[in-house]
Design goal:
heterodimer; A: 364 residues; alpha+beta; 3-stranded antiparallel sheet; B: alpha+beta; 2 domains; 5 helices
Chain lengths: 364, 109
């Protein structure tokens, strides 16, 4: 009897292993969902679109992966399944994921000083890779886009004084705190990670590294990642992927860095991505920073950033409504591309409605 | 005493003078940001139009609407053969070029 029982469990385990879905060339379709909950989600995400006033919620793509299968996708505006959409600051989390592969290859440690890989940082010898991943360089950076264009460091970096060599522009900023001591969201910090990557993998491999390290192993064939004139990836802003391809990165993260049989990112790397930065104070930003990903965690007694989503939800977020939410406890990956020019779109609302439509567990 | 009487005799001119000095001080302090500012609209429009059109492969008409901002532009050319966008506005001109499948578009130095 015990023998038969253990055989039963072995069989069950192997069945479970076979039942794990991974995309091949395409995502396999999952059971299609219909009903009022889905209609509520669609009417929230896809209201009538006005391309003249550009007001309100303007979703370009909404795609949902559950258990490794595509269970929903819808596109609007000019965007289709074939559009490599601008991800804006989702690029930051993508750069962290590329770095995770290099970390798995043993090429650097989190406590390594960045200057080891990017010599112009000699002014700040104590700044570590972990500090940059926490957006805690201590550099005095102003991250407004449209609202304060004169003072905006990110506008200057992308379009005027910084665009030729963005990392050099960032290093020129003054410090306002010691590295690692304080959180301040900064596209400059992400750009320094991209510059450090060049020293980490070497100039000969750098230009192709995001493709060879991450995109190709995941079966992503049409990614674009723009560089500055110095050839450094614009890690803060300029990666382009189709919604279907971005979801592959989401599935990799949902499964702790494993892609099929291969542990592409070490588990401790993903754990670092998902660990709140200890020096972050509640409400400093819209979500809680981990290692270059955004977390739905309660800190200092404040409520979770997205109270209607589980606490293990984490996300990559970008300007104008770009988002990829990963909810491991629900086996869900949700990609939402948009062209929101105001703040109508709310992450919590989308997550609440998506969980009602696709969540396996009953929400409290 | 003389100073007080000047303020009394010319209160508005005095205020205006103080405001002008403050403005000049601010301009001096922000001179680097101010001199770069006029480039924003043409550089932004050239770069983001180029990526909208040649990386995301959207239609030209859509991309014109997509890059529209509150500041006006005065000139726009898209040389489709070389995938080079040149935009002028606020007295400055900037170009962006599509450089390839992997690297997309880039502002020209």
């Amino acid at each position: 009897m015990p023998k038969g029982l253990s055989l039963f469990f072995v069989l069950l385990l192997s069945l479970a292993a076979h039942a794990e879905n991974w995309p091949g060339e395409q995502w396999s379709p999952g059971p299609s969902i219909t009903g009022p909950a889905l209609r509520a989600l669609e009417s929230y995400a896809f209201p009538p679109r006005n391309d003249t006033t550009r007001r309100g919620i303007r979703t370009d793509a909404l795609l949902v992966i559950r258990d490794g299968q595509l269970i929903f996708e819808r596109y609007a505006g000019p965007t289709s399944a074939a559009t490599p959409h601008l991800t804006w600051s989702i690029s930051k989390s993508l750069m962290a994921t590329v770095l995770g592969v290099a970390y798995g290859e043993g090429r650097f440690n989190l406590q390594d000083p960045v200057v080891k890989f990017y010599p112009p940082l000699k002014k700040y010898p104590d700044m570590t890779m972990a500090d940059l991943l926490h957006w805690a360089s201590g550099l005095d950076w102003q991250e407004d886009y449209e609202y304060a264009p004169l003072k905006s460091s990110v506008v200057a970096m992308l379009y005027t004084r910084g665009h030729r060599d963005m990392a050099a522009f960032t290093v020129d900023q003054d410090a306002y705190a010691a590295p690692g001591q304080a959180f301040r969201y900064s596209s400059g910090d992400s750009g320094l990670l991209a510059a450090a990557l060049k020293g980490i993998v070497g100039p000969a491999h750098y230009a192709d590294y995001p493709w060879t390290a991450l995109f190709e192993p995941l079966g992503i064939h049409h990614a674009t990642w723009e560089t500055d004139a110095a050839g450094i990836f614009v890690a803060s802003s300029y990666a382009y992927l189709t919604a279907r391809d971005l979801a592959r990165v989401g599935l990799l993260m949902a499964r702790d860095g494993r892609w099929g049989e291969r542990q592409l990112l070490p588990k401790d790397w993903v754990a670092f991505n998902r660990e709140p930065f200890a020096r972050y104070h509640a409400n400093q930003d819209d979500a809680v920073p981990g290692g270059h990903w955004w977390l739905n965690r309660a800190v200092e007694g404040a409520p979770r950033p997205w109270p209607d989503a589980p606490a293990d939800t984490f996300a990559a977020l970008g300007h104008w409504g770009q988002a990829m939410y990963v909810i491991p406890s629900e086996n869900l990956v949700i990609v939402r591309y948009g062209d929101d020019r105001d703040s109508s779109y709310q992450h919590n609302e989308l997550l609440k409605l998506a969980l009602k439509a696709f969540g396996g567990k009953v929400q409290p | 005493m003389n100073r007080h009487s000047l303020v009394r005799r010319r209160p508005f001119s005095t205020l205006l003078l103080i405001a002008l000095i403050a403005l000049l001080g601010w301009v001096w302090q922000e001179r680097v940001a101010l001199s770069a500012f006029p480039d924003i609209i043409s550089a932004y429009t050239a770069k983001e139009y180029c990526s909208c059109r040649y990386v995301m492969n959207n239609a030209a008409e859509y991309c014109h609407g997509y890059v529209k901002q509150w500041l006006p532009i005065s000139g726009f050319t898209d040389d489709a053969a070389s995938k080079r966008i040149t935009v002028s506005g606020l007295g400055r001109s900037n170009s962006a070029v599509w450089v390839g499948e992997h690297q997309g578009c880039r502002l020209q130095p």
